[in-house]
Amino acid sequence: MSMSLRENILRTCRLPRTDVLLAGRARMLTHDERELVLAVLVRGQSVASMASLMGEPVGTVRSRLWRLARRLASQKFLDVMRALPYLSPEDAALGRMRYGQNLPRRELCSRLGIKRYALTRRLVNLNAQVQAIRRVRNHSLLREAVERLSQPAEPALCADD
């Protein structure tokens, strides 16, 4: 018995089988990527019909769909998506661009107008915040943990001061 492409992707990538959860995860993708995922995985359109609409070869659309499914199933993507409401607007936008749209660092630098080193520092800070949010189970403690992470560290006082 042959499995459909939809069932194969959902099973292999361990994506949720409910359309509502899948559509919720697809919100962070770009418009074209979101339309492709929703059309094939939620509405059940064939890859061939989507390829003809997009003007792309069927193999290209199929491999793009697999990449999108793997990204939607990745733990980093899910962690960033769950952390978005607790992040500052700047960090949330960076998270959407880096992990939702999967933009390369060079593109992020040009869009944000910063050097690569500054981008690396911001991504490290974002990852630390996302990991802290992931570890905190109690939502009442969540805001406090995020506020502590976003505040600059106070300089240590010397004994002579």
Would you list the SSEs in sequence order as H and E? HHHHHHHHHH
User: Beta-strand level of the residues, as a percent range?
Assistant: under 5%
The parts where pLDDT drops under 50 for at least 5 residues are none
Structural class: mainly alpha
Tell me the count of domains. Answer: 2
Shape call: globular
Q: Helical segment tally?
A: 10
- The total strand number stands at 0
What is the CA–CA distance across the termini? 78 Å
Indicate the percent of residues in helices.
Answer: over 70%
Largest sheet: none
Computed Rg? 20 Å
Mean pLDDT: 78
Assembly classification: single chain
Could you please describe the fold and organization of this structure?
There is one protein chain. The chain has 161 residues and is mainly α. It folds into two domains: 5-73, Arc Repressor Mutant, subunit A; 76-150, no CATH class. Helices cover 70% and strands 0% of the residues. The chain has helices spanning 5-12, 19-26, 31-42, 47-54, 58-73, 75-83, 89-100, 105-112, 116-135, 139-150. Helix 6 packs across helix 9 (116-135). The longest helix is centred in the last third of the chain and has 20 residues, at 116-135. The model has no long low-confidence stretch (mean pLDDT 78).
